[in-house]
Write a structure and sequence with these properties.
Elements lengths: L7 E4 L9 H15 L4 E6 L11 H11 L9 E2 L4 H13 L3 E4 L28 E4 L10 E5 L3 E5 L1 H4 L3 E3 L7 H11 L4 E5 L6 H10 L6 E5 L2 E3 L18 H14 L13 H11 L10 E3 L1 H4 L2
Parallel strand pairs: 1-2, 2-3, 9-10, 11-12
Antiparallel strand pairs: 4-5, 5-8, 6-7
Helix pairs in contact: 1-7, 5-6
Length: about 300
């Protein structure tokens, strides 16, 4: 974790629907990790995929965070307004020979674990709409990338085994990997606290940081939050939405603190969120976060 004076964290939800308990785990852990050392906590709305982002979803997310007392520093950033910065980064990668246009569809390579890099030396389908991909072959990138995750320990990955990730989609929309890397660098993010479902995204982001001359943050990947049936909590799996009133948020906040291994006082179960956050901020220990997944049982957590 970075020093108190320089810590800058962020929470970056996709506004494809309301936040759920899994989102709360990520937001709360990143908020506490920042505020426990007097750092900043920024809010970034990752709305680069308009078809997935219904009208009003961003505003709902802001209201949900406010209900839990998770206030952010500075202005909210919207990735939908950042196209020029992403285009500049893509052009730099292309100039370096690290990004290339690709007209292949997923159907073309459905028999492979990942895209085989067929268009690296020139698009096989120049008549189709073109995506842009990042080269991960070892002649252009390091054979392995590694980092020290604050919960999971040393991570070492082979980029070529992950494939050439999309940077800009065939429909013209920007892809997550490029946008998140450019914005983390531009906003000076020092510490990324997020779910372990994004662990295998980190190698691509480390490559992009290296290729774009951006600093690499510290990473802490959190346990996944799952329903009692084992499914990952997600909007696609219809996870219950977080409340938008402070009173309704109290018991869920207490449950989230317990899920993160923080052992809040039992008597604070129904305490105002600011009181719970004040205790949590002064007692925060990221090392107390467990190694196993988090199981969410709505009937118990909302009692």
């Amino acid at each position: 974790m970075s020093g108190a004076a320089s810590y800058r964290g962020r929470f970056a939800p996709t506004p494809s629907g309301p936040l759920h308990f899994g989102s709360l785990i990520a937001a709360l852990a990143s908020w506490l990790d920042a505020h426990a050392v007097g750092g900043e906590w920024l809010l970034r709305i990752e709305d680069i995929d308009p078809p997935r982002c219904p009208r009003g979803a961003s505003e709902d997310i802001l209201r949900q965070l406010e209900a839990f007392g998770l206030h952010w520093d500075g202005d909210v950033r919207h990735q939908s307004r950042r196209s020029e910065a992403y285009q500049h980064a893509l052009e730099k990668l292309a100039t370096l020979g690290l990004a290339y246009p690709c007209g292949c569809s997923r159907k073309d390579w459905q028999g492979f674990d990942h895209y085989p890099g067929w268009c690296r030396e020139g698009s096989l389908h120049p008549d189709r709409p073109q995506a842009w991909r990042l080269r991960t072959d070892s002649t252009h990138q390091p054979v392995k990338v590694s980092w020290q995750d604050r919960r999971l320990g040393r991570q070492e990955w082979t980029p070529a085994a992950l494939g050439d990730v999309v940077l800009r989609r065939r429909d013209g929309f920007w892809a997550y990997q490029l946008a998140v890397t450019v914005d983390d660098g531009d906003q000076g993010i020092t510490d990324v606290v997020r779910g372990s479902d994004l662990l295998d995204n980190t190698p691509w982001q480390l490559l992009l940081q290296r290729n774009l001359d951006l600093p690499t943050p510290s990473y802490l990947h959190l346990p996944l939050a799952r329903a009692a049936n084992g499914q990952k909590l997600s909007k696609q799996n219809l996870a219950p939405a977080l409340p938008r009133s402070e009173e309704a948020a109290r018991t869920l906040l207490h449950a989230a603190l317990r899920a993160l291994g923080q052992h809040p006082p039992v008597e604070s179960l129904d305490a105002p969120v600011q009181e719970q956050l004040c205790w949590a901020k002064s007692h925060w220990r990221s090392t107390a976060i467990g190694q196993g997944d988090i199981v969410f049982r709505p009937a118990l957590e909302s009692r």
